[in-house]
Amino acid sequence: MNEATATFSALRPRLHGIAYRMLGSVAESEDVVQDIWLSWNGVERETIDNPEAWLVAATTRRAIDRLRAAKARREEYVGIWLPEPILTDEGASPEDLQELASDVSVAFLLLLERLTPEARAAFLLREVLDADYPEIACTIGKSEAACRQLVHRAKDQLRDERPRQTVPHDAHFVLMRRFADAMAKGDFYTLRDMLAVDADLSGDGGGKVSAFPKPMLGGQRIAQLFYASHLRYGENVLVRMARINGEWSLLRYIDGELESAQSYVTDGEKILSIHVQRNPDKLARIVRGLQGFSGRQL
Fold it and tell me: Which of 153, 157, 185, 242 is 20 to 30 A from 288 (CA-CA)?
């Protein structure tokens, strides 16, 4: 392995993380990284002072271009678009998981969809990757003053929706285990009591499977939905806990097939929001990654 290949291989996870945070799609992120690999092989090494900075900048710019095209497609998406969920490395430390949950959770990626591609890039580079403003300016091709303004406006846009305090990983786990157990048993009253009165549920079917065209509002209604599923499928429903995007989440199987990956936003005591990914195309990688799965079955 030559030096250029070794450098790219070492940075590949970081580049993929940037692209995924920008796009919310594993496939598109892999395409971006592959494009950068081809560019990296064709560039004159003598012209590059800092390989890491060059690769990060090139990945970010390519992701911005991809996101512009993706936003146009998502306007025609059937139903609610949710990010593609990914299984989190089982060997990750509690500190790594807490960090992942704060900047790559399904809820956070969905929140970033409100930003323009340039604002999203500037915000992520500054707030997640801790880049300085000269680096951000060089990356996205704007002045430092413009980049500061982009980040400031992005913070303002996201401030009201981002959680004000981080829920401890263990507290989230306990809440998810209780909810999973209640779902498996069809315990309507426990489901209802664990949901906030104004809880909401969004589902992504991608036009491939049924899903609600707009969010379902109200803890009582959401509890009734889960209870109705239990009445319909009974013992053919299996619920497993798994770490998705850094957080404990639920995988629901019906008749032995993965039906949904469910990510939850909580305050440590109540469930506030549920994001249900049902699009088979977006579940495919989880299905492939479940070989040797060590998740908790309930």
Answer: 185
- At residue 298, does pLDDT exceed 50? no
We report the CATH number of the domain holding residue 32 as 1.20.140
* Residue 208 is assigned to a structural domain of this protein: yes
Q: HSE-up of 126 (CA within 13 Å, CB side)?
A: 22
CATH number at residue 258: 3.10.450.50
Gyration radius (Cα) of the chain, Å:
20
Average pLDDT over residues 246-268: 94
Q: How far apart are CA 135 and CA 124, in angstroms?
A: 13
Q: How many other β-carbons are positioned within 10 Å of the β-carbon of residue 72?
A: 9
67, 190: one domain: no
Whether this prediction's pTM lies above 0.85 is answered by: yes
Query: How far apart, in whole angstroms, are the C-alpha atoms of residue 298 and residue 296?
Result: 7
Q: Which two tokens stand for residue 72?
A: 């146009």
Residues of the chain above pLDDT 90, percent: 73
What is the per-residue pLDDT for 103?
75
Task: Find the domain containing 252 and state its range.
Answer: 169-297
Task: For residues 178-196, give the mean pLDDT.
Answer: 96
